[in-house]
Amino acid sequence: MQQSNTYIITFSIILTVVLGLLLSGTSQVLGPLQRKAEDLDNKKQILGAVLESDQLRAMKPEEVLSFYETRIASRVVDIEGKEVTQNPDGSPIVAEKVNVGKNYKMAPERRMYPIFIYHAEGNPESVESYILPVYGAGLWDEIWGYVALQTDLTTIEGVTFSHKGETPGLGARITSRDVQERYQGKEIYDESGNLQSVYMQKGEGKDYSGESHKVDGLSGATITANGVNNMMKNYLQYYSSFLNSQKSGQQTEAVAAN
Predict the structure, then answer these.
(1) Helix or strand or coil: residue 149?
(2) Which is nearest to 99 in space by CA: 163, 144, 138?
(3) Which stretches of the chain drop beneath a pLDDT of 70?
(4) How far apart are CA 153 and CA 241, in angstroms?
(5) What is the CA radius of gyration of the chain?
(6) Cα–Cα distance measured from residue 221 to residue 173, given in angstroms and rounded to the nearest whole number
(7) What stretches of 155-198 adopt beta strand conformation (E)?
(8) Start-to-end Cα distance in the chain
(9) What is the structure's pLDDT at 248?
(10) What is residue 24's three-state secondary structure?
């Protein structure tokens, strides 16, 4: 039997409302779970710059969160290295909630720069390394990561990289343990104190163990490697005011101690 136009329109409206309510309810139920999963993943990536991958993989989610709470302190600075504690509306700024990807779309001088401090358990004053987020563009989409610096603020303790859509087996290898380990022990400043960063070289299979600012490249993924190089150079430069102020503070403390 043919239905009237009124019936069809009414049925369509009811169906749209019901589906909308179902989607809204699903979003409200799954939203908190999704945010918790994202928070856990972000904290694992931060810790990945200072912990061995096997150690991190062996941790249960609650152990990761507990370890993070007892070993990581955080703050946010501007491009001049000055600490920022409040949003324009007066609400507190939390480093873990700063969306570096969204900040990346702003001019560098308008961005907020989170800093994660890895310290001895129970003693935030005993710093073991500084972990800095980095962000950029690969061949196909976004790439990002974390660079951990030793307390000399020039030697890399470790890195962790991730990506949104790099080619499997090629550019996607930036997430692999062997690629990330190439950065350990490299230096971001030269002997004169100038920021040099660390660069993947073109091609793969060469030994750069004697080079402070070079690591082996990615065969068949030059554009992704260049993206990592630009990401490292740019973000280390954005953090340079903070790093210089920390170095100045260390020198002042050393003089006072003498």
Answers:
(1) strand
(2) 144
(3) 1-5, 24-33, 250-258
(4) 12
(5) 23
(6) 9
(7) 156-163
(8) 97
(9) 79
(10) helix
